[in-house]
Design goal:
The protein has a single domain, classed as Oxidized Rhodanese, domain 1 (3-Layer(aba) Sandwich), CATH 3.40.250. The chain contains four helices and five strands, in the order βαβαββαβα. It starts with a strand and ends in a 10-residue tail after the last helix. Helix 2 links the parallel strand 2 and strand 3. A five-stranded parallel beta sheet has the order 1-5-4-2-3. The chain has 100 residues and is an alpha/beta fold. Keywords: Transferase. This is Rhodanese-related sulfurtransferase. It holds the Pfam family Rhodanese.
């Protein structure tokens, strides 16, 4: 399974990012530009995944690793983000929250 660090994620440009946390976690704050497709829904939403290579993030890296493994078995070019959104925030990176 391919994986990248938060430092590598911050240097990436143009690679879609899928956040597999649940909707309430995503709403509490997410990496700017990340698209929310919760792990619990991803099996029914495969048609929403990018055709090109993309990154997958969760809170700490565990759920996203399981999702990446399952997607790779289906032929997707997915990369896990180690450390997840928790590390992204801890390192002081910007966070988006939906406007109320």
């Amino acid at each position: 399974m391919k994986s990248i660090t938060i430092a590598e994620l911050t240097a990436r440009e143009g690679t879609p990012l899928i956040d597999v946390r649940e909707k309430d976690e995503y709403a509490a704050g997410h990496v700017p530009g990340a698209v929310n497709i919760p792990m619990s829904e991803i099996g029914n939403r495969l048609d929403e995944l990018p055709a090109e290579a993309f990154d997958v993030i969760c809170q700490a890296g565990g759920r996203s690793a399981r999702v990446v493994q399952a997607l790779e078995e289906r032929g997707y070019d997915a990369t896990n983000v180690e450390g997840g959104t928790g590390e992204w925030i801890a390192l002081g990176n910007p966070v988006e929250k939906p406007s109320a």
